[in-house]
Structure formats: structure tokens, C-alpha cells
Predict the 3D structure of the following.
Amino acid sequence: MSISDYGQRFLPKDSLEEIRANFQEGRKVRVAGRVMTRREMGKSTFCDLKDGSGRMQLYAKKDILGEEGYKTFRDLSLGDIIGLEGELFTSKMGEHTIKIEKFERLSKIVRTLPEKWHGLKDVETRYRQRYVDLISNDDVRATFRARSRIIREIRAYLDGQGFMEVETPMMQSIAGGARAKPFVTHHHALHADLFLRVAPELYLKRLLVGGFEKVFEINRNFRNEGLSIRHNPEFTMLELYQAYADYTDMMDITEAMVHHLVVMLYGKEEIPYGDKTLNFKRPWKRGTFYGALQEATGMDLRKGDVREAAKQLQVEVSKEMDDIDVLNEIFGEKVEKDLWEPCFVVDYPTVMTPLAKAKAEDPELVYRFELFIAKMEIANAFSELNDPVIQRQRLTEQKELIGEHKELDEDFLTALEFAMPPAGGLGIGIDRLIMLLTNQNSIRDVILFPQLRPEKKAAENDAGTGEEG
């Protein structure tokens, strides 16, 4: 029996998951997948087949395949992809099994599959060779199946709430995104530099001006910044905007949608995360930005010198940091580290948030919240500023503060002059949300192909912690 190393078209009629769910003794099946294990027993061989849905035991017998066919089957390498037809039966050990009647090799493996994955070096390799990781580790495949399901469910949920999904430019002529550093590229035909988007916010607001009242985008954003277990320079965000709403409506949407996802995946409100649990029972805790700081530090940080406060609190800050960065650093070290259960932190300083509407009763604060879960920022939302005069003033002040690559988006300001309705806007970090919902500690474990250091530099860091700063 001759067998090709690289076969032709072979469409399976059945998946292993479906066969297991609807097992019927004697049923004929046609499947394809990868040979993963082999156990010899005289004139018969048991092995495992793995397809996109799961695993199942195969049984090859010399009396059925013939001497040449059986020899050819035994010569298959672990990792070869085969197509086969056979009959279902239950082995003496009670295992649901496919008895092979005929088979063909569809693709030959020329490398050796790893037996085990352990240690820092192999973890690094898992990310670089994700295809091998997916072959070897069923739990990794389950995580990415869950990711797909979560994103699909988010779309369905928002569709049910009357939101319309839209697409906005990834390459933009003006670098948005406040303090975030953008990636710069060059368009040769236009003879112009362009920027990979940091956020789609200003384009989505243009759509509110145009009359779309509920819009969302699940989008890829890019920040030319560091790498860590919580940061990847290319990441996925959900951004949505609702006309005539405000940040309290965004809190309600966030709480209801995330709670829905938790119950969909787990069937309950309490889920594992690391060696602890997270309880998503509603309503979630709410507290103010300055109130949380005062509770954690004993200081009223709306008054006095924040640098002196940082010194007293032993929070390290650099000379290059402005007061807002210092305040953020204090919040990160003294407040964020204790925010485990879902918590909305509301009412941020106006100077931190140039695109949010100031509070009528206290213009030094804006209608804004951030959602923290398991010590991570998961969501950010505003009552959106829609006064074009104040918006121009705020963006001008920000440009003077930040400098490089920051220009006023005159077209966005023009759009506001055509009247944007009051609105609530929300951004949710999809990658971090999926980390929580799939019990993963690193963002790299929920991104199929995370950005990594060049291999040579990574190898030099193998003796370290494995986290890239």
C-alpha cells in the first residue's frame, strides 16, 4: 500500500465532539485529524486522534487493513494528519472508539512534537510557536475558543440593546489618544505620515453628530509603549457611544453585560481567578477617585503638593512626571492594588480627562468612571464633552502639555460645531476582560500571537522573571 506524504481534499462528515455526544455502536463515520499517541497490542494498534473539537481513540487491526495497510499505519509519525473512515464501537476498557476501515495521510509532520511544556524557556517558546502550543495543550485551545465565544456574545448582547456595529480608520492622519505614544508609518502615495490608531473615539463621536445614536466597535488599537503581563502594544478594545445618555448609563451597561458574560460561561456569579475568587453579584461597589485616595492614604490629595505627598507615601516618581502623572502613580500604588471585587471609581480630575464633561456642581471634576477588577483597570467611561468651545480649549491645553505628535483634530472640532447630542461613551479592554473570564494571569495567554522581544534578546532575559517591562 503506497501512501502520499501530502494528500488531497478530504472533507470529514463528522467531528469527534459530535460523535462523542451522539455515540451509536456500529455507526459509520468519516473524520480527519492529527495522530497524537500510539499503543501497540500484537496485531492491533490503539491511538488517539485529535481534531478541532476534541480527541477520540482509534483502533487499527491487521485483519481489517491488511498486512501492507497495517504496516503503513504503524509507520505513521505522531503528529501526522490523516483522514479515515470507520465504525464506532466500545473497547473492552469501556472507551468509545473508531475502528479504522480505511485511511490516508493528508500531511506528514517533519518535526517532533514536544512531550511536555515546562519552565520559563518553554513558556517563551509557546508564545513564539503558538501553533505547537495549540497542538499540545488542550487547555490553551479551550481558552481561545472561550475568547471567540465571549466576543461573539458581546456583539449579540449589544445588538440586542439596539447598538449598531461600525468600523473606523486604523490609519489616521492625526495621532489621538491623549498621552499614549503612537506608531508612525508613511503613506508614499500621499507623501504623508500616518499613525496607527490609539483609539477610535473621535470617529465614533462623529457618527453621533451624523445621527447614529447607538454605535460600537470592537477594534484593534496600537500603543508604542512597553510590554508586560498586562500590556501588549497591539490590543483589542470595545468602544461604544450612546446619544442622550451619560456615564451612569455606561455603568449600568458595563455591569449588566459583564455579569451576563460571567453567568453565560460559569452558570453562577462567583468565579475563580488565580488562587482567589471574584464575585460579580450586582450591584457593584462605587466610590470616588479622591475618596478612594483619602481612604487609602489618609490625605486629601485635592489640596497641597502631590509630589510632597508622594514623598511622604514613599511612592517613587521622576522629575519628568507632571502632577497628574504623580497623582496617577499614587493611585496605582495605594488604591489600585486593593481593588479586587468589581468596583467603579468615579469623578476624576478634569485635567486628567479632556474629552469628558465637567460636573455642573464641581467643574474641577468630570463625569467619568473606571472599572477595576482583580487590581486591573477593565473599563473607562465618560459623560462626553459636547461643547466645541470648551473642547478646543481643553485639547489646546493638552497639546501644549504633551507636545510630540499631538495636533488638534480640527475636523473633529468642526463636527462638534454641527452639534453632538449629550452622550455616554465606554471603552472596555477585551484582552483583560478575557483574562478574568478565563482565569489567565498574563495577557499573552489570551492573545494568539502576542508581541515579543526579538528571540536573541529574549534568550538573554531567560534568567529573569519572564516579564518584559
About this structure: Residues 117-121, 462-469 have pLDDT under 50 and may be disordered.
